[in-house]
């Protein structure tokens, strides 16, 4: 019994306002520390999903070439109508892009699989930037004279495809063998 007539059993139970505010502040600090790593995790998953989707499209195109005994084409960054011999891949995320697009081109050269499933060599016309008569810059084929005739300069393109996440500054590099089979995938930076 207490001197004023109360007892110890009537004490209030619960949190004070100060205790509640401190708890909320600690939880907010922990959440702020976790948010950047959560965002990076989401961006990594997006990069992996885009890479897997591209590999699936390439695998389907190769299989279809062998099955139909005809060439199949995979257009990268293209959005034409798909058909049994024409495939395309476009990133579903704005920050994920293909690297290695030749200057003056909108996309890398298409990938072509032969009826045997082999990846045919890719090449592109080398471009150069010039100023036209109106003073505007434009891209034109870089040509050389061969026996008095202007010929486009052709450059070979590697059997690698690099997908870059601009938010992560990381990339996935897919390498295919001469026979068109998946060879390796490694991480890189962009």
From TrEMBL:
Presence of the UniProt keyword Transmembrane helix in the record: yes
UniProt keyword annotation of Transmembrane present: yes
Pfam families named among the record's database cross-references: N_methyl
Transmembrane domains' residue ranges: 20-42
Sorted UniProt keywords: Membrane, Transmembrane, Transmembrane helix
SUPFAM superfamilies: Pili subunits
Designated name of the protein: Prepilin-type N-terminal cleavage/methylation domain-containing protein
Organism of origin: Acinetobacter johnsonii
């Amino acid at each position: 019994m207490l001197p004023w007539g109360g007892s110890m059993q009537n004490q209030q139970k619960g949190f004070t306002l100060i205790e509640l505010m401190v708890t909320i502040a600690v939880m907010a600090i922990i959440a702020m520390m976790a948010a950047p790593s959560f965002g990076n995790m989401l961006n990594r998953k997006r990069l992996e999903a885009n890479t897997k989707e591209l590999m699936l499209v390439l695998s389907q195109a190769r299989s279809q070439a062998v099955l139909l005994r005809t060439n199949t084409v995979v257009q990268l960054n293209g959005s034409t109508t798909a058909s049994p011999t024409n495939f395309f891949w476009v990133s579903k995320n704005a920050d994920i892009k293909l690297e290695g697009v030749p200057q003056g081109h909108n996309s890398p050269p298409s990938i072509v699989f032969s009826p045997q499933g082999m990846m045919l060599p890719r090449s592109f016309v080398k471009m150069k930037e010039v100023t036209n008569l109106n003073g505007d810059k434009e891209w034109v084929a870089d040509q050389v004279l061969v026996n008095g005739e202007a010929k486009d300069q052709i450059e070979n393109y590697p059997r690698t495809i690099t997908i870059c996440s601009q938010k992560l500054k990381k990339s996935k590099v897919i390498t295919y063998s001469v026979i068109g089979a998946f060879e390796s995938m490694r991480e890189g930076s962009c």
